[in-house]
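Exercise 7. Given the encoded structure of a 456-residue chain, write a plausible sequence.
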């Protein structure tokens, strides 16, 4: 292999590629105490696809009846999607836009839609919202709403995400229970074991191009020597950081060895100017990791994966960009589900979407403002598909006033289902948690009558 000189920038980039979640330092310092729950012999995985920026779900799932569509078009105006392009969903009055594979999955009972879900402390009415009663803090803020979705708590700031807390409650908690293929995220932050984070491909050190094939000392040995000096430091944080880096090296080597036996998939979906790591590449990596889950250290029986599709903050050019993103998401989800099915793991792997928030129903030019409630997709063999769960608000206007008690004066939609209800339903399938354990993961769940939505 051709060797090359490593400069300071290269070294820092490599260090970043090795990094696990920063919660690993806290874990090494003993910040958390383990909790125990049931042990499992079967395998299950949850795959979260976070639609970052705020997906306009009311242009993803649209009424198809004459009256329903006319009301929708009256509110949405120039950003409404054409009725003749809607793909009907069986036994409903709604259709999907630009997502033919998802329509096919829904009609084959392999995909469910969760209607009007969002961050809530408890159920609230429009009157309460307008009066500022029981509203989640910092509504319509990207970073705050993302964090509330990822912590599953809209009442107070959390120190860890819901996936980290869910993993803590597993008896067979594993170093590879939580895996992100798009870098750091709060959903998997703060657990007793840090999330394993990947940005791009996994390489053993001798594949980075920095080792000299004629040298007796490999690059990873040199890096070990550098870190060893930090291990011998008297400073507790320096020692913890060094231990973390050594652990990361071992993790990378273990995963890269397992990946030598991974099944090959060929995800071909593309999206022009897609920011960040392409979702197709992320989900292809997840499929490969799932194919070798039994070969990872500890053979994890439960895994939560995090992927992210960027670019949903459509303040402009929504009618051009949003349909492309929906179709791309449709294609990649189909490719991923085909890969899972080919491994005969459809019943064991459940994929679901989440987003910062929905968008305002009323356009602001050629785009939309930040909203609140939106719709989510859940697919997999264990899903009770072919149904819409939850409640759609009525999209009717009389004399300039919205008649639905869930549409605010500014045209935003108050969620009728909480993110905690949605995520708790997924978690119940994933971990068979007791009611008391679900309360640890989802602190506001008892504020809602329906704790399990029954879609899985």
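Solution.
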């Amino acid at each position: 292999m051709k060797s090359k000189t490593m400069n300071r920038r290269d070294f820092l980039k490599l260090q970043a590629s090795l990094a696990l979640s920063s919660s690993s330092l806290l874990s090494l310092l003993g910040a958390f105490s383990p909790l125990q729950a049931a042990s499992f012999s079967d395998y299950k995985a949850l795959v979260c696809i976070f639609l970052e920026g705020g997906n306009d779900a009311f242009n993803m799932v649209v009424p198809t009846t004459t009256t329903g569509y006319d009301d929708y078009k009256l509110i949405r105006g120039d950003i409404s999607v054409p009725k003749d392009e809607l793909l009907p969903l069986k036994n409903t009055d709604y259709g999907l836009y630009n997502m033919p594979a998802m329509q096919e999955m829904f009609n084959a009972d392999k995909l469910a839609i969760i209607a009007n879900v969002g961050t809530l402390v408890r159920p609230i009415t429009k009157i309460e919202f307008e009066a500022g009663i029981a509203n989640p803090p910092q509504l319509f803020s990207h970073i705050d709403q993302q964090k509330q979705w990822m912590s599953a708590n809209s009442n107070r700031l959390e120190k860890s995400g819901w996936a980290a807390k869910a993993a803590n409650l597993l008896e067979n908690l594993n170093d590879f229970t939580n895996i992100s293929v798009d870098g750091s995220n709060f959903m998997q932050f703060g657990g007793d074991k840090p999330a394993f984070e990947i940005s791009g491909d996994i390489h053993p050190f001798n594949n980075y191009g920095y080792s000299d094939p004629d040298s007796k000392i490999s690059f990873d040995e040199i890096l070990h020597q550098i870190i060893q000096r930090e291990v011998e430091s008297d400073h507790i944080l320096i020692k913890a950081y060094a231990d973390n880096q050594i652990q990361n090296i071992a993790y990378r080597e273990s995963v890269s060895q397992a990946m030598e036996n991974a099944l090959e998939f060929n995800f071909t979906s593309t999206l022009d100017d897609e920011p960040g790591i392409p979702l197709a590449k992320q989900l292809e990596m997840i499929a490969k990791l799932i194919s070798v889950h039994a070969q990872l250290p500890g053979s994890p029986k439960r895994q939560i994966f995090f992927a992210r599709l960027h670019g949903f903050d459509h303040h402009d050019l929504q009618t051009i960009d949003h349909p492309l993103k929906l179709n791309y998401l449709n294609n990649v989800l189909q490719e991923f589900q085909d890969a899972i099915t080919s491994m005969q793991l459809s019943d064991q792997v459940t994929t679901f979407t989440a987003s910062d928030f929905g968008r305002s129903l009323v356009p602001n030019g050629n785009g939309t403002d930040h909203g609140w409630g939106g719709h989510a997709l859940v697919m997999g063999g264990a899903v009770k598909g072919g149904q819409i769960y939850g409640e759609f608000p009525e999209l009717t206007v009389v004399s300039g006033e919205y008649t639905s008690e869930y549409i605010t004066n500014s045209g935003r939609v108050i969620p009728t289902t909480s993110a905690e209800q949605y995520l708790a339903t997924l978690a119940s399938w994933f971990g068979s948690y007791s009611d008391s354990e679900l309360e640890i993961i989802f602190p506001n769940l008892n504020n809602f009558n329906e704790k399990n939505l029954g879609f899985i």
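Remark. Residues 318-342 form the longest helix (25 residues). Students should compare their own answers with the one above.
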